[in-house]
Design a protein that fits this description.
Number of strands: 16
Number of domains: 2
Number of helices: 15
Shape: globular
Helix content: 40-55%
Strand content: 15-25%
CATH class of the largest domain: Alpha Beta
Largest sheet: 8 strands, parallel
Mean pLDDT: 96
CATH topology of the largest domain: TIM Barrel
């Protein structure tokens, strides 16, 4: 049965908690590595577990198109199909249709889109989005929402926000009819960069009453200060008794700021994507492993890091692998970046429990300034 309990708070809004799901308990604040296609790119579930992953994210749009729900159902869901025993959250697919589909047509009924893979036409309604996620046996399902670009005119943002709310009600009705409600369905708040529309969206979504809530429509090209402004305004409006999830965000600095504002859950492709591009995260900022200064460097990526990569390999070797385009480069870089992100979340959780988040935050930025 899905349950969420706040365990500790700070003098600000940062908080830590426990989120219980059918496939395990998650300590928050939590970062979810992105496994869009049923895998976190280049690493195994065992390596994810070793890095400290508690929950991963899969995607409705991608898995529906390939390999298809009929194949995944042969394994009774995504967990057995991909050999991951922990909790899984699945995105509804709305953002991918917005960003990837060759053509899409949005109506009250849902979204008609053409696959980015082969151009085939598909129909995704709020009800179908829930059915697909049920077939994946998701621990946390997301409502289908209407995500739009930035910038967008107020009229367009208003229409998308109102449609998202109507779809949310249909999603919940379907979820209640088709499940025992021992998993969770999260409602998504939209409203663009308009605080009054965000407040209106919160009111309508919270009235429907979901086990958890997410902020959508962020990290879509808006300036960083606007993203923080909207999150800082919206997060306190959501019920403190429910988990609060910021979708698609972000950098380590983003996570620190947003945890301080009261966010509990995050996902982002940065640790895996940047690893494949040779960019590695450390407590002292990012490093690009291709840099010539690492050619003869016998140190690990970050001295003191306990990840498998840092315990066994040097910067010089990792640079050699990357320049040689060896596949091992992507694996080792990803193991480190995922470990860094998950360790950051764990450190923040500990700081919150000790009511030392402000001290942690000062140290976090001081290290970057001196690194």
């Amino acid at each position: 049965m899905f349950k969420f309990k706040v365990e500790a708070t700070t003098s600000g809004r940062a908080r830590s908690g426990l989120l219980n799901t059918l496939h395990g308990t998650i300590k928050t604040p939590a970062f979810m590595p992105v496994g869009t296609l049923g895998s976190v790119k280049s690493i195994t579930p065992e390596e994810l577990t070793s890095a400290g992953a508690q929950i991963i994210l899969g995607n409705t749009y991608h898995l529906y198109l390939r390999p298809g729900c009929d194949i995944i159902q042969l394994f009774s869901g995504l967990h057995k199909f991909m050999h991951w025993n922990g909790p899984i959250l699945t995105d509804s697919g709305g953002f991918q249709i917005f960003s990837l589909a060759k053509l899409n047509k949005i109506s009250e009924q849902g979204i008609i889109f053409q696959s980015h893979i082969d151009g085939s036409k598909h129909d995704l309604t709020p009800e179908k989005a829930i059915e697909i996620q049920i077939s994946l046996n998701s621990d946390i399902l997301m409502c289908l929402d209407h995500c739009i670009e930035y910038p967008a005119a107020r009229k367009k943002v208003t229409e998308a926000m109102e449609l998202t709310s109507r779809w949310a009600q249909r999603c919940k009705t379907m979820w209640m009819e088709k499940t025992e409600m021992d998993n969770a369905l999260f409602g998504i708040v939209q409203g663009g960069m308009y605080t009054d529309l965000r407040a209106e969206s919160v009111e309508s979504i919270v009235e429907i009453d979901f086990p958890g809530y997410a902020l959508g429509g962020l990290s879509v090209g808006e300036p960083k200060d606007q993203m923080f402004e909207i999150a800082d305004f919206t997060l306190p409006l959501l019920p403190d008794s429910k988990p609060k999830y910021i979708m698609g965000v972000g950098t380590p600095e983003d996570l620190v700021e947003l945890v301080g504002m009261g966010a509990d859950m995050f996902d982002c492709v940065l640790p895996t994507r940047n690893a494949r591009n040779g960019q590695l995260f450390t407590n002292f900022g990012k490093i690009n492993i291709v840099n010539s200064r690492f050619k003869n460097d016998t140190n690990p990526i970050e001295p003191g890091c306990s990840c498998y990569t840092c315990k066994n390999y040097s910067r010089a070797y990792l640079r050699h692998l990357f320049l040689s385009k060896e596949l091992l480069s992507y694996r080792l870089n990803t193991i480190h970046n995922i470990h860094y992100y998950l360790s950051l979340m764990k450190t923040m959780g500990t700081a919150i429990e000790k009511d030392e988040f402000t001290t942690f935050k000062r140290s976090f930025y001081n290290k970057r300034a001196t690194g």
